[in-house]
Amino acid sequence: MGDLYVVRKSRGPMPLINSTSSGLPCFRKTFISLKDVGSVEGLAYHRAWDTLYWTSSTTSSITRHTVDQTRPGAFDREAVIAMSEDDHPHVLALDECQNLMFWTNWNEQHPSIMRSTLTGKNAQVVVSTDILTPNGLTIDHRAEKLYFSDGSLGKIERCEYDGSQRHVIVKSGPGTFLSLAVYDNYIFWSDWGRRAILRSNKYTGGDTKILRSDIPHQPMGIIAVANDTNSCELSPCSLLNGGCHDLCLLTPNGRVNCSCRGDRILLDDNRCVTVMVWI
After folding, report:
1. Which of 10, 104, 163, 220 is the most exposed place for a label (fewest CB within 10 A)?
2. What span, in angstroms and rounded, lies between the C-alpha atoms of 83 and 92?
3. What secondary structure letter does DSSP report for 93?
4. CB count in 10 Å sphere of residue 74
């Protein structure tokens, strides 16, 4: 039994879609009464801390609140990110393992994808070019990759946590992609135009399949839930830095890819060395 946290803006059914034959996990809906939170656009849950994070586009902020307020060290509606009135944080995703959170910013002049620590420190822009309305964002925890969609440009992209190595995975018409989720070898998304839920191979963008197309209302958020959705122990970089001397990065399929900072080069034994050039 798990808890499903819901932001209620309007009443209506919440459809559950099972793409396998193993059955769905059992949920109980959990409502927390918090007033004056603004227009909540993104919601994420930190399991280890029993803490909800949410974005508010009207107050240009990201706030966290511990569900069980009797818990030692509980957070009581602590604003961790305060942005300018031109900024409008929307979708939010947490990486508990790396102590990072990512969010989309619907700033009309400077739309972007941003990140910071879970305490709001070291906030920075990671994607700011070739982007208009980033309305979908999710994390592939096993591969430590970001997937994001742009409703105006009609595409889904993958990149590293620092915004580098961008790859277009799926491209369609404007308005197609809304919310994203990643699990196993697939990227899932909700489609307003078709009122449907679809999936594609997260590496190639192929093997596209409509999972459901008879949704009576335009589908909004989508999540993929499994026992290993966000397990820190699964990262191969968590054990002895993956055998890397410097940076332990992961390929899109979750395998170790050692790298070096600066101008140093990588040797066959995964050590990084500085090459001296004599002039």
Report:
1. 10
2. 15
3. E
4. 15
Q: Three-state DSSP class for 64?
A: strand
Alpha-carbon gap, residue 138 to 101, rounded angstroms = 11
More confident residue, 126 or 23: 126
Domains in the chain, ordered, with CATH?
2-232 (2.120.10.30), 236-273 (2.10.25.10)
Q: Is 198 exposed, middle or buried (0-12, 13-18, 19+ CB in 10 A)?
A: buried
| Cα gap 27→18, rounded to integer Å | 14
Q: Is the pLDDT of residue 220 over 60?
A: yes
Place of tokens 């309007």: 10
Distance of alpha carbon 136 from alpha carbon 161, whole angstroms: 15
Write out the two tokens for 262.
């600066």
Both tokens of 195, joined, read: 């009122």
Confidence of residue 21 (pLDDT cuts 50, 70, 90): very low
**Prediction pTM value:** 0.78
Tell which residue, 17, 70, 71, 19, has the closest CA to residue 49.
71
pLDDT for residue 157 is more than 50:
yes
* Token pair listed for 52: 């909800």
The tokens describing 45, both together, are 């849950």
